[in-house]
Write a structure and sequence with these properties.
single chain; 196 residues; alpha/beta; 6 strands; 38% helix
């Protein structure tokens, strides 16, 4: 049957082994095989940040620099920078697929441009993550899958920006995912930090 008797010994089951021990082993191996067949598990990290800092940042840009900036450009620049830092990918390109107008648009190295100069890319590079902006919808919380790559979602509640990251263990380590969300929300909390 291909049962690994060593697992019983490792669990401290005394010899001689009985039929019930073998049934327990069959069940454990079936669960393990089922989990392996279903593929990597999707994990989620969520955070919320007051909207006031981003709104003040946009007002400052408009008053002092006569620059109107779309929220989506802020999300792209901040998320790209946070991802690059979390993965220590200073020498690598960071490609984001942004969910926009019913389709996906690719952005390459958004953090290496001025926010107002971020533009779609013609690159066919594989995306490092997907960015979903739901701030113009009534959705204020979401848990998505991360079948292709990690998915960072930003939504809006009454007073906060709600951030959610879905990822699989073969895409990001837990530490990288936590650093990514922490870095992104830190930039939302202190937008001028991104410009320095």
């Amino acid at each position: 049957e291909g049962l690994d008797i060593a697992q019983l010994a490792a669990k401290g089951v005394p010899q001689p082994y009985h039929v019930k021990d073998l049934e327990q082993l069959r069940g454990a191996q079936a669960v393990g095989a089922s989990a392996a067949a279903s593929g990597p598990q999707t994990f989620h990290i969520g955070a919320s940040v007051s909207r006031k800092k981003v709104e003040a940042f946009k007002a400052w840009l408009k008053a002092d620099h006569q620059t109107d900036i779309e929220d989506g450009l802020i999300w792209l620049g901040f998320a790209s920078s946070a991802f690059r830092t979390a993965l220590e990918a200073n020498d690598n390109d960071v490609c984001i697929l942004s969910s926009e107008a019913g389709g996906y648009i690719s952005y390459l190295n958004a953090d290496r441009r001025k926010l107002v100069e971020i533009a779609p890319s013609e690159s066919d590079a594989a995306p490092d993550f997907i960015l979903r902006d739901l701030t113009e919808t009534a959705i204020d919380m979401v848990q998505t899958s991360a079948a292709v790559c990690p998915t960072l979602t930003i939504a809006r509640s009454k007073k906060a920006l709600v951030v959610s990251l879905a990822y699989q263990s073969d895409q990001l380590s837990d530490d990288q995912a936590i650093q990514f969300v922490a870095g992104f929300t830190a930039r939302l909390n202190e937008p001028l930090r991104h410009l320095l």
